[in-house]
Amino acid sequence: MSNLARTPKQIGAVIQRTRKNHGWSQSDLGERAGLRQATISTIERGESPARIDTLLSVLGALDLEFRIDIRTKLTQFDIEDRA
């Protein structure tokens, strides 16, 4: 599965959806990532950018990876959580 996200809010939506697909609460994910539940909540809401090491901990706990690639010219409808 591949998800394209370019903003903190879009990243948070991918993390939240993946967490829920695992059947985990925010506390469960926080425990696996070594973070507080409140931190997971903030990341999922995309309210402020997360530190890269924090984000990598969350992604690792979810068995997701971070990739850097050349930016594509997709329409707004091809990108996660268009809001």
Structural summary, described in words:
This protein is mostly helical and 83 residues long. It has four helices and no strands. It has a domain at 8-62: lambda repressor-like DNA-binding domains (434 Repressor (Amino-terminal Domain)), CATH 1.10.260. α1 packs across α3 (37-45) and α2 crosses α3 (37-45). It is globular.
CATH class designation of the domain at 8-62: Mainly Alpha
Radius of gyration: 12 Å
Which runs of at least 5 residues are low in confidence (pLDDT < 50)?
none
For the record, what is the CATH homologous superfamily label of the domain at 8-62? lambda repressor-like DNA-binding domains
Question: Any guess at the CATH architecture of the domain at 8-62?
Answer: Orthogonal Bundle
Structural class: mainly alpha
Name the beta content range. Answer: under 5%
Strands, count: 0
SSE ordering = HHHH
Q: Please, what is the average pLDDT?
A: 88
Approximate shape: globular
Please provide a brief summary of the model.
This protein is an all-alpha fold and 83 residues long. The chain is built from 4 helices and no strands. The two termini are 21 Å apart.
Give the helices and strands, then pairings.
Elements: H1 8-22, H2 26-33, H3 37-45, H4 52-61
Helix pairs in contact: 1-3, 2-3, 2-4
